[in-house]
Amino acid sequence: MDANLVQQLSADSGCMRPIRLTPRLVLLACLCTFVLVSTSFFSLQARPPDAFEPQALSAAETIVDTDVSPPSLPPPPPPPSSPLTSLPQRIAPRISVVAIWEGSFPFPALVNFFASFRANAPTVELVWIGIRKDEQDACLDIGQYATLEHEDPSSNIVFRCLTRLEYWTAHREYFCRQWKCSAEERQEVLDVFMERNDMDRNKSLYRIWRGYIFRDFLHSETQWWGWADVDTFMGSFQSQFPWDVASDYDVIIPAHTDSMLYLRGHLGFIQTRAETEFRMNLYDNMRSMDGFIHRHKDAYWCAEEAEFSAFVIRTPSISFLTLPYHLVELGFDARSPATALFASPSGAYALSPSHSPPLPAFPDFPLLALPSAPSSFVPTFSAAGATHPVDLVTGVDRDKWVPAETTTFYEPPPADELGWAAGEEGEGEPVRIVGRGGGFEGGREGVWERFERARPELRVRVLGAADGEVRASLTEGLYIHWMEHKYEHRPTFDSIPARPLLPSEALAAYYTDGMEIWNIDRGELVWRSVLLD
């Protein structure tokens, strides 16, 4: 084409047609350009001092002449439902649980730790942070259980692999922002973190800040972050987490009834909001670089159950809520061959201690028709509940596993002294909920105790019963902690098949006697641990 030819948009046809430039057209074009530039210059000079200043154009931006009709645009991208769409967006969870692991595959039950989080999608996400020694080392490969975010943003299990240096650098970055470290101090803080790596084998010494340190790995809209031990199995968050009152508290402590108040190392939840983060940073030994270097070095190996518990429970500005029905665990007074725990994709259950008539012990324990779907949500507090203030007793040696100076107790008064009867026959003893905040009046330190009726037990069929009408009573909770099974009878615990439970299956555990996997739909025993003398 001739060099004097240019292309011009035709407003009526939308196509391109060539025209030839003449001297008159060239002169007219130059005059128009001068007028436009002059007008723009003087309008900018007349702009008031506080007017919005346009940003410089980036390389990806272009100037569009609005006096010319735009060219035809390409078709819009396909809608989200189209199979041509790129990967789906990561769904916002309400809770992000952060688990940290350094080392090899711990035990076969880890498979169902992941499966239990999968069953809680999209309400809860698990952020798994693997640690490797250096660039030549590798993190525990959990690819068959979790998916990298960039591969599948819809997954509720997020995997991150960090070297030790990267892991402790993240801690340095978080705390040095609080302490306003100089360049030299930043290096010193990192050196101290690295030197103390072996002191923190349980990844406990900074646990109450874990979600804030690794906030970039969490979904930006999550409301709660938590920690979890990997020897746990999650039940139904949908029905068991206190959604109706959770926003009133900084810390949620899932726990069994105990007069000692402390954070559980195996599971806990803290709000992501800035006010709660500010309160966590009031912990004295970590408020300054000096405190970190000279005082926090002597922290207990399970700090969340010791120092951090004393800090949270004794600090009046930190609100907390303990829920005794969350933990599905063997009570020390209920360990018998017939005591059974049940883990299924629908929830976490235990045979009720009040069950009658008694069922045969393992290996003759019958299969039960466990629920096939999560149960309905029950409000945390009822109109029948009664709250009263209590005072704390601190630093008392009562033969606990943590240093005596970190223990905090309350003295629970007998229910009948407060005019709280056990209720109708079959309702059992009242549930004792302890907390601070939430609009309830507390004692000297703001702590209160509340009596509530025990939650209704689940009545399920005993499969294979002669008359078909025999029922077993179950209690439901948020999670199971396999502590007794892991430590009291490790061979049985290690023999669990390393595969996720199917929707129709359940893992039944009978303290130290044995374990089984049932297929409830078929009423069949799928697997049983070796019978021991």
TrEMBL record:
<protein>
    <submittedName>
        <fullName>Uncharacterized protein</fullName>
    </submittedName>
</protein>
<keyword id="KW-1133">Transmembrane helix</keyword>
<keyword id="KW-0472">Membrane</keyword>
<feature type="compositionally biased region" description="Pro residues">
    <location>
        <begin position="71"/>
        <end position="82"/>
    </location>
</feature>
<keyword id="KW-0812">Transmembrane</keyword>
<feature type="transmembrane region" description="Helical">
    <location>
        <begin position="25"/>
        <end position="44"/>
    </location>
</feature>
<feature type="region of interest" description="Disordered">
    <location>
        <begin position="66"/>
        <end position="86"/>
    </location>
</feature>
